[in-house]
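Long-time lurker, finally posting.

We've been working with Dehydrogenase (Ciceribacter naphthalenivorans) and I want a structural starting point before designing mutants. I don't trust myself to interpret raw outputs, so I'm hoping someone here can both generate the structure tokens and explain anything notable. Sequence follows.
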Amino acid sequence: MGLLSRPAMQYTKAMNIASPIRTTGHTVCPHDCPSACALNVDLGGDGRIGRVRGAADNSYTAGVICAKVARYAERLYHPDRLLTPKRRKGAKGAGGWQEISWDDALDEVAEAFVKAEAAHGSEAIWPYFYAGTMGQVQRDSIERLRHAKRYSGFFGSICTNMAWTGYAMGTGTLRGPDPREMAKADCVVIWGTNAVATQVNVMTHAMKARKERGAKIVVVDVYENATMKQADLGLIVRPGTDAALACAVMHIAFRDGYADRAYMARYADDPAGLEAHLKTRTPEWAAAITGLSVEEIEAFARLVGATKRSFFRLGYGFARQRNGTVAMHAALSIATVLGSWQHEGGGAFHSNSDIFRLNKAELLGTGYLDPEIRMLDQSQIGRVLTGDAEALRHRGPVTALLIQNTNPLNVAPEQRLVKQGFDRDDLFVAVHEQFMTETAEVADIVLPATMFVEHDDLYRGGGHSHILLGPKLVEPPETVRTNLFVIEELAKRLGVADRSGFGLNEREHIDRMLLPNGLPGYDALREDRWIDCQPDFRTAHYLDGFAHADGKFRFRPDWENGKAPNKPPVRLGNLGPVSSLPVYPDQVDLIELADAAHPFRLTTSPARNFLNSTFTETPTSREKEVRPEVMVNPADAARLSIAGGDIVRLGNGRGSLRIHARVTDAVKPGVLVAEGIWPNKAHLDGEGINVLTGADSPAPHGGAAFHDNKVWLEKVAE
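Top reply, 14 upvotes:
Generated this for you. Predicted structure of Dehydrogenase:
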């Protein structure tokens, strides 16, 4: 015990001692953000990090990063960081722990997996992970163990599906104009992302266009957030009504001569059919749906219609509504109707995820993948763990979990079901984490994890075009281990360590991802720091055709069989009410519409100083966010006798919670916004905002509609 605790004491004792800068290290922000910022890190003579800055010589990061990452030392040297393996003592969640050695901890995890497999088959074990790190090696090595051991599959649905699917249904692939071209635009439309809070580099390039070219910035979102405040034209739409706005803009384009008919004749599948369909999608029709005025819609349509260099930057807000796939496709279609793709600084961009040529088969262990092994939906972990037959694919229970890089007890929808599932006495849980998250608190074994400056890894930026190396810069505490170490050690104990892909270190994995496809390996990247994979202008702007067999953009997508980057396996089929999806871009009310019993629509938008559940442990981030609150429009507040600071209750069929009210005209009447994700325990009743969110699968390929909730609101009596 003494040997285990001594390094931890030394590590925390010196956390507030400043050290002189010895040199600058170069790395990459590892967090779940499309920006994947290139970083410069001050390194002190004592081997500790100091200030973190954006790399000025990276053309996308351009020297700018978010404030929460700039103060990363606060997180790295936090006194509550996990530093030793722990075994639970007493009841789950009671807080009783015993420090144990790494060997004992890993032996117990392996033994629990062997017992679970003997009792219920290999599918009883479910390795569960996500994007707490975006490093390819540390994030994805868990898949190799999964496939080698035939454990239950993992359908990663929680973040991207509706947005990715809607974009690829139109273009045929997930890539677009160089995002640095925003700086060359005459109009930048930031739609469905609060970029100031979540993708700060989008603002870097948009503001450059404004400063150097006089470009106009348009922001479309559901409330007046920090990005909206930077807009020349801010459009606050009702949640889930983006497609109605897009259709009205295209209606005006055809009506007023902004539509590029020659371009569409060459590059689109059915412009005549689309024009006929949009005849009734007037500004008046859209105004009634979106809550915008006819004048606002007309002004937006005129601006982008008359501005050839209009760059549509489409965000992940589209992935948070049940009709988000249709909404993304509709917003994307505007660029095709206008012919914006033809111009530098024009077109529509969401993600470049399809441009990177990484050879990941060995890393992922795809050669071991058995298509007969069931695939479980990440977003439905609550249903899986509480025995829902459909969620379990009508097979046996999950009785053992290995969790890396995610905190489902806080971030997953249907939180009460998730909590109920984790409370099962027959469920074994091992969590590999950096802090004692609420998921770690109910684990049987907790393992301490390294942070990004303490290991090697490779990153790629979906929001830009770079593959970047994140080399190890400082030594971790002696009792902390990498994700890769845990996977390798479990592979040894579970009898698969002799298989291809195991036994390699991070640098070897990085070389095997890069070198076979003609990309420079680890050593070259250590010098060059990144590889720019941006396609040439014609390819990026689809001037030689879109990525469908006929080269045509799809105004009429094949929702069931069309291209999509993250389809569920064939044996699962399409998900959600696919038959309700429209033939052409259209408003489709596959959302939780407000009703008499639930007169409000609630969105759970990102907070500026948190990143999902990361940074909620750092004091500066918590101080800046203050406390969990729900934004309420003054008219709604007056009607319900609610004053700022009052405690209110929100509820729906999934549950209810108490929270403080913030009365503000940043939200429209009938709309509530709760920025987070705050830890559950930070809320008044110990339950977080995801008590109110659902895990039903949106069409056509699943997802998690976190911003799509109908709720009631009432003031809590004193």
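Before you design anything, note these points.
The CA atoms of residues 37 and 61 lie 5 Å apart.
The two ends are 49 Å apart (CA to CA).
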